[in-house]
Amino acid sequence: MDKQLKDYGDISAPNRTKEIVSRHGFSFKKSLGQNFLVDQNILRKIVEAAELGPDDGALEIGPGIGSLTEPLAREAKAVLAVEIDQRLIPILDETLASYSNVQIVHGDVLKLPLGDLLRQHLGECEQVSVVANLPYYVTTPIVMKLLEEKLPLRNIVVMIQKEVADRMASGPGTKDYGSLSIAVSYYCEPQLVTIVPRTVFIPQPNVDSAVIKLKVRDRPPVQVEDEAFFFDVVQAAFAQRRKTVANNLLARFFGKGERSRLETILAEAGIDPVRRGETLSIDEYARLSNIMLRSL
Ligand code: SAM
């Protein structure tokens, strides 16, 4: 089948979306983050960034009316698309009627057993990537679910709010660096693919967007003895950004009068207690949490 994005003849992508939506009497729900992408170039960039091979599978979260699902179906061996809005299911049945390799599942991606679904629908695929224009009201919970469940994924290529993409892809010493940056870089290598203006969506969102590619790591870049505790330490260190790392950790993990014990731990980790959480690298957080774990 032709691997190029579909040419809709004399009807532009925005007009096609409007036509489908109005013919089905569909009204957009802001509460479900329904901003449909109508730019063929951006769709192409998203699909290209996923680097899908003919034996690969794609998991799409929130297919909408199927604008991204179609090019995915042409590139991948199989596509599993999870859509929460029941009203979109008959529309997807129509727009994707000519593809036999697409499976639509109706449900909330945050509640579905994704591991089981991937095994069931994409189990025959060589590698699986997530490719989606995410609903912005749940961007972080969705990405964290994909990462924390340690699903067997190769790439996660998602359109998200630019501000969240900046936080995911930033490093120590920058204003956007925080617990989300560390969580993302623990599981993946993040890369900003492109910045996207709000004009390419129907209806237009209130914020600018970005496509980010998260290349899932085979193993984390640091060794931590207890993952949950490592992330607790990171969260605590950023609890109040204007406070020093020592004061934030003291408030969360130590009793009154234990400052000198904490300072001994920080010294052992080679961390100056007056530093702020945003200056510590992932290696320093790993070292600190390992030492804290042994001494608490
Ligand atoms: N992929 C389409 C596109 O690019 O035009 C639509 C993207 S729109 C930003 C987000 C889609 O996610 C909507 O279709 C919405 O109904 C769906 N959605 C919202 N919350 C969801 C959830 N918790 N689980 C699955 N789908 C969800």
UniProtKB/TrEMBL annotation:
GO molecular function per UniProt: 16S rRNA (adenine(1518)-N(6)/adenine(1519)-N(6))-dimethyltransferase activity
UniProt keyword RNA-binding present: yes
Keyword Transferase found: yes
Domain Ribosomal RNA adenine methylase transferase N-terminal stretches: 42-218
Record keywords: Cytoplasm, Methyltransferase, RNA-binding, rRNA processing, S-adenosyl-L-methionine, Transferase
Chief site of localization: cytoplasm
Residues of the signal peptide: none
Pfam families, sorted: RrnaAD (PF00398)
InterPro entries the record matches: KsgA/Erm, rRNA_Ade_diMease-like_C, rRNA_Ade_Mease_Trfase_CS, rRNA_Ade_methylase_Trfase_N, rRNA_adenine_dimethylase, SAM-dependent_MTases_sf
Subcellular localization(s) per the UniProt record: Cytoplasm
Record-listed E.C. numbers: 2.1.1.182
Catalyzed chemical reaction(s): adenosine(1518)/adenosine(1519) in 16S rRNA + 4 S-adenosyl-L-methionine = N(6)-dimethyladenosine(1518)/N(6)-dimethyladenosine(1519) in 16S rRNA + 4 S-adenosyl-L-homocysteine + 4 H(+)
UniProt feature coiled coil, ranges: none
Residues binding S-adenosyl-L-methionine: 35, 37, 62, 83, 108, 133
Enzyme class: transferase
Biological role: Specifically dimethylates two adjacent adenosines (A1518 and A1519) in the loop of a conserved hairpin near the 3'-end of 16S rRNA in the 30S particle. May play a critical role in biogenesis of 30S subunits.
PANTHER family: DIMETHYLADENOSINE TRANSFERASE, DIMETHYLADENOSINE TRANSFERASE-RELATED
HAMAP family, A to Z: 16SrRNA_methyltr_A
Protein name per the record: Ribosomal RNA small subunit methyltransferase A
